[in-house]
Amino acid sequence: MSxxxxxxxxxxxxxxxxVKTGTIGPDVLDIGKLYAQTGAFTYDPGFTSTASCxxxxxxxxxxxxxxxxxxxxxxxxxxxGDFLETCYLLLYxxxxxxxxxxxxxxxxxxxxxxxxxxxxxxxxxxxxAHPMAVMVAAVGALAAFYHDSTDITDEKQRMIASMxxxxxxxxxxxxxxxxxxxxxxxxxxxxxxxxSNFLNMCFAVPCEEYKINPVLSRALDRxxxxxxxxxxxxxxxTVRLAGSSGANPFACIAAGIACLWGPAHGxxxxxxxxxxxxxxxxxxxxxxxxxxxxxxxxxxxxxxGHRVYKNYxxxxxxxxxxxxxxLAELGVKDDPLLEVAVELERxxxxxxxxxxxxxxxxxxxxxxITLKAMGFxxxxxxxxxxxxxxxxxxxxxxxxxxxxxxxxxxPRQLYTGAALRDYVPTGKR
Length: 429
Ligand code: SDX
What we know:
The protein is mainly alpha-helical. Helix content is 49%, strand content 6%. A hairpin with a 7-residue loop joins strand 2 and strand 3 (28-29). Helix 7 packs parallel to helix 8 (194-203), helix 7 (155-180) packs antiparallel against helix 18 and helix 12 (268-279) packs across helix 15. The longest helix has 26 residues, at 155-180. The radius of gyration is 23 Å and the shape is globular. The termini are far apart. The structure holds s-citryldethia Coenzyme A (SDX). Residues 230, 233, 264-266, 268, 292, 300-308, 357, 359, 362-364 line the site of s-citryldethia Coenzyme A.
């Protein structure tokens, strides 16, 4: 980090604050001493201009539409590697050698089963429970089964907990799906690769052999890569804040799943598909674009816009290509939802409002159509996002825990409530 500084003048006082420079991307003004030196806080609800940490994992250039994991562009990782290779890269910082990759795959495969009593845990839910509600509970409950990997001060336990979650979250996700459709759970099969195993656990039934479609398995593996990590997004920031208190890793990831569920974040893929279905036909698009532009109408085009990308989300481009591949493989012609999506994108990208506000399709815009074609119900879309993002949350949590300067996150506030006043007895109110 090169040493620079910036001056801040407040209430007649000027203080000099250090500026830190990263490898690439904006400099940061280190305001750690601002309150002590000026008695004032900074104010940035939504953290539009605030860096919450130092990180070496993922970098996004929102203006250029660039996404790098440990320096490697997302399109190259999605094109040439598989999801577990990206998991290794996010966790260890380098692409694995063939023997490192074989060892990592083996270690993940050896943790795919969950404690048999987890199956009884599911029985407590209604069959129509949203699978995200089940996932928040089930992942948090892992702490009740794996006490031998909850000591975050022990590096060995941290790695075991990390491998357990990367391996078990897909199993729990498949169980959540099977439970809601009343089908028996399917055990993991270690003879299958990570994503084929997930498809098998979701779609196989005891009474017949489930044939893995390699095109669909490769497509879903690529979708997992696209969703693996994304800097300090809302759910990752939730995981970091939960982890900063020393909470066990299972609880931190459960908190991340809860945050991801929101329609402004990971829930957007489910909301985007519901929006496309509600629009229903290209003739109705102008009516919805008008609603999206109306300040008094809370309706937004789900799958559009992004806090960081003010250019095309690079993941959306790969997602769109994957969507066409999957529909072609399944022989789905003229999918009405795809027709609406393509036309909606065309209209929105040529509309003054969207151009001025730099609103482009994000990763969630095409994922729903693809996942629906693969046979997943909309209620499972965010669960699939959580399966993929688990490694990103863990890598970011691990980076924070291993940072010697790490301390509990405790933001301050601008207080706008009542000033000091005395209690009023009931009879005098
Ligand atoms: C994800 O952070 C990440 O990295 C997230 C993610 C990840 O991988 O972790 O990329 C995954 O969450 C992708 C985003 C999925 N969400 C959606 O698709 C929901 C629809 N999008 C919007 O809700 C919104 O764009 C957000 C939440 C994504 C971003 O919101 P911001 O950055 O707070 O921007 P904003 O709401 O202040 O919008 C800026 C302007 C506003 O107009 P003005 O108040 O300035 O007049 O753009 C408008 C908004 O009204 N706007 C939209 C819009 N998104 C923003 N108008 C219509 N439709 C939209 N989708």
